[in-house]
Amino acid sequence: MSFGDPNNPYGPPPQQPPTAPPQGPPGYGYPQAPPTVPPQGYGYPQQPAYPGYPVGNMMQPTMPGLLTTARVFLFIISAVQILGALVWFYVAAFVSDVSDAADRYSTSSDDPFSSFSDGAGIASGVIVLFALIAAGLAALSIILGVKFSKGGQGVRITTVIYGALGGIVGLIALFAGLDSGLASAILFPLIWVVFAAVITAAPVVPSGTAWFARPRY
Questions:
Q1: 163 or 214: whose pLDDT is higher?
Q2: 46-55, 129-138, 205-214 — which one is most confidently predicted on average?
Q3: Which of 23, 53, 76, 131 is deepest in the core (most CB within 10 A)?
Q4: What is the pTM of this model?
Q5: Residue 74 · residue 67 · CB < 8 Å
Q6: In whole angstroms, what is the distance from residue 2 CA to residue 11 CA?
Q7: Angle separating helix axes 112-147 and 65-105, nearest 10 degrees
């Protein structure tokens, strides 16, 4: 008698494969199968990441309208100052030529032509100084207008001081024009005072202050 023969009726019964435990709803004593985790990568959908906050590509704010107007006024003022500097240089050259002509007609140090030549030479030097001041102010106006786009607190404070000083000069000229009673002597100082007031107020109002204090990336 051999128990190794599968056809032997007296041998041990063949072993059955294990059966899966019964599945059912949670509870009721049924064991639950462990959850399966889908593999990642190789075509499988990835788990979405948590949303972040953009930093480097944030949109820059636009320049406020009052600051844009002040910037245009600065460029207009610079053009007037450049023209003024050219006129002063031309007048200085003309006075210098007159001084040289009077010096040629002078015969002695006590001659009237000699005194006139000396006075014209001094006047020519003063006029050149005025021309250089006008040219320097024109350069400052252009620099401030250009720096409005990326400038900080230094540009803001310089613009306020520059506009305030220009307003004071314009008010003095306006009072002198009102005292003269000439309309032509009032119009230009009045326009200058309006320009200076806008240039002074634009960096001081909340929108201008926020523009110059904005973060830069």
A1: 163
A2: 129-138
A3: 131
A4: 0.67
A5: no
A6: 7
A7: 160
Joined together, the tokens standing for residue 210 give 């926020």
pLDDT (tens digit per residue) in 72-109:
999 999 999 999 999 999 999 998 888 777 777 666 66
> CA 75, CA 65: separation in Å to the nearest integer?
16
107 to 93, 110, 113: CA distances (angstroms): 24, 8, 8
Contact status, residue 214 vs residue 185, Cβ threshold 8 Å: no
| 168, 199 Cβ separation under 8 angstroms | no
d(CA 132, CA 84): 10
197 exposed, middle or buried (CB, 10 Å; 0-12, 13-18, 19+)? middle
- Residue 63: what pLDDT? 87
Q: What number of residues does the chain have? A: 217
pLDDT in tens, 186-207: 888 999 999 999 999 999 999 9
d(CA 40, CA 62): 45
* Location of structure tokens 């005194």: 115
